[in-house]
């Protein structure tokens, strides 16, 4: 908080009028840009308020519907991913997976903690840009291996060791953008895995080097299937933008599973301007994806995993009700294993931040030992404890999801449906394509 | 280890690749490839594969140890992400030949199109003819030897890969510069040419290109280079 802010908290606040256009964060950003001559880079996802799952409510059962008994009647949570073509689909016990996050962006203990937590709960974790580490393979019963534009660390042995393959076209935080892992995070091990000198910035390309467009993607997927003898499910991950078309084209290209990442989805590092101004909210993207899948007869045959701002069982339930088969978490998983922990507040303060606000994940100075390659910092994270906390968090999400599903009379969480939802705002109603609460009005249903 | 013959006008590519994975050290002859995609991908042993005709995308993709000879032209991404072994294209290659390849040798007797050796990660690519634009884009390590000409934006955003071109270069990409050809580089070119079987080409006629390393750590003052 600046001196000006403190004064504003005092007696003079009533005498001053803050501009809605040039508010304090805007003025600070102009001043920072004028000083430094470069855009701001940070981790995480969009911070601006966008229509989200909070703008939806579930309709619990009453006279017209009957609920299931909480704590007694079964409410199934498992999900099978990759039933379209793969010989060995993934059978997960819960519909919440861990999103792709790289070794490089994250420390080895953080990757291990994610694997431990996910495995405890019977779900999958995902590699990231930088290849597969022995630790995460060892500690992840079910591991999804990402094929990214950079192809850092990509090799056929790991492809065969993986349980599924995720072709990453884009991510919600920065659809259309690549990435940059800054030199301070390029340890010798990271450098070796990526076949680049230590200490230099590593660019992650925004386009794949050997295919362009959906027709090429179809052939690329065919190659991956041939290399792995058609055993592995092939996921295609897209950042939410022109979702209706992107999903239809990914399915046409042969995807077994679509991973749809909304603009609130996190990243290790990207320009603030990208995070806040590119892509569409998760809430707006899901109905487009479901529409595309439904129109080509592939809803539930090609599974839909949704990510970007999933925080609670309510979010999970609402995403499933809108038509997702599962959800994926990234930022929330990092928080669960210790990111932004209040006990580190003093150390965050030394970095010019505070617990609950720390987002300079690209700098490699994370006092929680998560978004760093500094051995000393990384050693602070106990992967066993982190894994246990992640499992606790996932367990809570599942219990919350089941609670809400049972209240809606569903014996399987994926049986939640749009009919169980209403919206609190006109915007959310239009985006989620569910009625404004207390009405039968779904704005914009007459046109796509 | 045994001999296998596949007529791809009669059997699917799947049967070839399944056999290649089951008998990783076998000898394979592929007839009538007909431009089909993903032929001989994912080899993991010292197989010898001969393909009589033109192939589509990603032939010999992710090759490990095997030797694959294509008696024809090939589509996009031949030997993409190759780890080791040897891939020979007796004709021309389309875009992204040898993309992201980590090891082994890709020899192209004809020309290669755009983005040859893009994002190269340690393999050697030797082209008897010319290469198209953006070849060696973001190439990290390994060597690209071009006996003919190179298109525009050669070696754009290059890391540590080494590029040798005998003919004309239409233009260099960001941070790619010409460097002195020393004896060690002539020897390196000679070794690669010999490995490719192009001993008739004179190593001293090549020019060397590499990274100026000005863009290795982001600096707002060099952003205009992009």
Task: Give the SSE map.
The complex is a heterodimer of chains A (448) and B (226).
Chain A: H1 3-9, H2 24-36, E1 41-44, E2 56-58, E3 79-81, E4 90-92, E5 96-98, H3 108-120, E6 124-126, H4 134-139, E7 142-147, H5 156-161, E8 164-168, E9 179-181, H6 188-194, E10 202-204, H7 213-227, E11 234-239, H8 243-252, E12 257-261, E13 267-271, H9 272-277, H10 282-295, E14 303-307, H11 313-321, E15 326-329, H12 331-337, H13 345-350, H14 375-378, H15 383-407, E16 421-423, H16 426-432
Parallel strand pairs in A: 5-15, 6-7, 7-8, 8-11, 11-12, 12-14, 14-15
Antiparallel strand pairs in A: 1-13, 2-16, 3-4, 9-10
Chain B: E1 3-7, H1 13-22, E2 27-31, E3 48-52, E4 67-70, E5 86-89, E6 105-108, E7 121-127, E8 141-146, E9 162-165, E10 176-179, H2 183-196, E11 207-211
In the CATH hierarchy, what is the architecture of chain A at level 2? Alpha-Beta Barrel
Helix percent band of chain A = 25-40%
CATH superfamily of chain A: Aldolase class I
Order of helical and strand elements of chain B: EHEEEEEEEEEHE
Low-confidence stretches of chain B: none
End-to-end gap of chain B: 51 Å
Count of individual domains of chain B: 1
Structure summary:
The complex is a heterodimer of chains A (448) and B (226). Chain A is of the alpha/beta class and 448 residues long.
Task: Provide keyphrases for this structure.
heterodimer, A: 448 residues, alpha/beta, TIM Barrel, 8-stranded parallel sheet, two-stranded antiparallel sheet, 16 helices, 16 strands, globular, B: 226 residues, 11-stranded mixed sheet, 2 helices, 11 strands, 11% helix, elongated
């Amino acid at each position: 908080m600046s001196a000006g802010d403190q004064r504003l908290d005092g007696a003079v606040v009533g005498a001053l009028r803050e501009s809605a256009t040039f508010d304090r964060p805007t003025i600070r950003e102009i001043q920072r840009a004028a000083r430094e001559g470069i855009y701001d880079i940070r981790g995480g996802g969009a911070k601006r308020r966008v229509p989200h799952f909070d703008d939806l409510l579930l309709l619990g059962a009453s006279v017209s519907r009957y609920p299931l008994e909480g704590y007694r009647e079964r409410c199934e949570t498992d999900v099978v991913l990759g039933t379209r073509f793969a010989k060995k689909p993934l059978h997960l016990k819960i519909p919440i997976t861990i999103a792709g996050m790289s070794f490089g962006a994250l420390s080895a203990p953080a990757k291990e903690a994610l694997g431990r937590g996910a495995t405890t709960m019977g779900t999958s974790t995902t590699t990231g840009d930088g290849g597969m580490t022995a630790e995460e393979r060892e500690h992840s019963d079910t591991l999804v291996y990402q094929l990214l534009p950079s192809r850092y660390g990509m090799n056929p042995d790991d492809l065969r060791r993986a349980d599924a393959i995720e072709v990453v076209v884009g991510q919600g935080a920065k659809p259309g953008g690549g990435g940059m892992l800054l030199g301070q995070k390029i340890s010798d091990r990271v450098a070796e895995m990526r076949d680049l000198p230590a200490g230099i910035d590593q660019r992650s390309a925004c386009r794949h080097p050997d295919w362009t467009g959906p027709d090429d993607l179809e052939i690329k997927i065919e190659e991956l299937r041939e290399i792995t003898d058609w055993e592995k499910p092939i996921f295609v991950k897209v950042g939410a933008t022109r979702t209706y078309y992107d999903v239809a084209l990914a399915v046409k290209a042969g995807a077994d599973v679509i991973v749809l990442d909304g603009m609130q989805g996190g990243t290790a590092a990207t320009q603030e301007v990208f995070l806040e101004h590119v892509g569409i909210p998760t809430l707006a993207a899901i109905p487009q994806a479901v529409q595309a899948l439904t129109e080509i007869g592939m809803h539930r045959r090609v599974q839909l995993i949704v990510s970007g701002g999933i925080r609670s069982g309510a979010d999970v339930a609402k995403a499933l009700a809108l038509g997702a088969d599962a959800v994926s978490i990234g930022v929330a998983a990092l928080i669960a294993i210790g990111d932004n922990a209040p006990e580190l507040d003093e150390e965050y303060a030394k970095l010019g931040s505070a617990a609950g606000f720390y987002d300079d994940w690209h700098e490699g100075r994370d006092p929680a030992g998560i978004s760093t390659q500094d051995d000393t910092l990384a050693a602070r994270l106990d992967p066993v404890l982190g894994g246990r906390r992640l499992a606790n968090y996932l367990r809570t999400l599942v219990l919350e999801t089941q609670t809400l599903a049972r209240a809606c009379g569903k014996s399987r969480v994926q049986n939640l449906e749009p009919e169980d939802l209403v919206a609190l705002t006109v915007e959310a109603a239009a985006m989620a394509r569910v009625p404004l609460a207390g009405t039968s009005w779904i704005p914009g249903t007459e046109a796509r | 280890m045994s001999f296998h013959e596949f007529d791809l006008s009669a059997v699917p590519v799947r049967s070839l690749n399944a056999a290649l994975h089951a008998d990783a050290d076998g000898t394979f002859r592929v007839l009538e490839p007909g431009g089909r995609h993903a032929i001989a991908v994912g080899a993991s042993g010292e197989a010898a594969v001969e393909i009589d005709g033109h192939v589509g995308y990603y032939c010999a993709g992710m090759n490990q140890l095997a030797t694959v000879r294509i008696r024809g032209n090939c589509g996009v991404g031949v030997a993409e992400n190759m780890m080791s072994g040897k891939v020979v294209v007796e004709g021309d290659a389309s875009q992204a030949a040898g993309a992201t390849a980590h090891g082994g040798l890709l020899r192209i007797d004809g020309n290669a199109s755009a983005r040859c050796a893009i994002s190269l990660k340690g393999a050697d690519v030797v082209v008897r003819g010319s290469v198209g634009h953006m070849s060696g884009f973001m190439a990290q390590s390994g060597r690209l030897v071009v006996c003919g000409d190179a298109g525009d934006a050669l070696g754009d955003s290059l890391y540590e890969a080494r590029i040798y071109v005998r003919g004309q270069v239409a233009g260099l990409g960001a941070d790619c510069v010409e460097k002195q050809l020393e004896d060690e580089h002539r020897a390196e070119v000679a070794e690669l040419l010999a490995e490719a079987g192009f001993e008739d080409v004179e190593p001293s006629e090549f020019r060397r290109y590499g990274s100026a390393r000005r863009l290795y750590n982001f600096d707002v003052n060099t952003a205009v280079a992009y």
